[in-house]
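Subgroup meeting minutes
Present: P.N., E.W., G.H.
Scribe: E.W.

1. P.N. recapped why we're keeping a running log of single-chain structure predictions: easier to compare across weeks, and new members can see raw inputs and outputs side by side.
2. G.H. added today's entry (181 aa).
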Amino acid sequence: MKNHISSTRIGEVLSVLDEMRQAGIVDKYAIGGAFAAILHNEPISTIDLDIFFFFKEKQSSRVLSLDPIYEFAKGHGFSFDHEFINIHGWLVQFVEASHSKLWAEAIENALSLSIDSRDAFVIDKEHLVAMWLFAGRAKDYQKIAMFVDANILDNERLTKILERHDLLVKWETEKWRFTNE
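Output recorded in log:
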C-alpha cells in the first residue's frame, strides 16, 4: 500500500532516521502513535512523533539504554525535552520494541507510505488498535473509537492480532468504550 502524505519537515526527521540506520544504531523502525493515526484516518491533535524501533546491535544488559540514540542526537545538535528529542521541530520519542511481541510484529508488518516524497514505515491500523488496547489509556480508547467510527479496520485481521497477543478478552470487556455494542 502506497499513500502520499505531505507534512511540515517530517521528511527531515525521516532523513535523520535513515542516518541512524546507516550509522548502525537503528535497524527497522516504524512510526506509531497519534501521528500514525493521522496518516491512516484524519487529523487529531498530537505534539510528538513516536518511533518504534529495533537497535541494530542487541543490548546485553538487563536494563535498556537509549544512550546510542541520545549520543547520536547530541552529536547532531538536537535538544532534549524529557524523554523526547527535538529533531527539526518535532518532539520524537524512541520506543525500543524488541521486548514486546506485539510491538515487534507491528514493526515487521509496517506499511510503506510516502511522506514528504520519502518512503517511511508506518504501523498499520490493526496493530495500532491492538497497541492502544494494550496500553488502555483514555486517549488510546478515543483513538480506537475514531477508527471504529470511521469503519476503516479489517475486523478479521484485527481479531487475529488480538488473539495472537492475548488481547481478545480485553477487547470484549472494553469494547463498550469504543463501539455501539
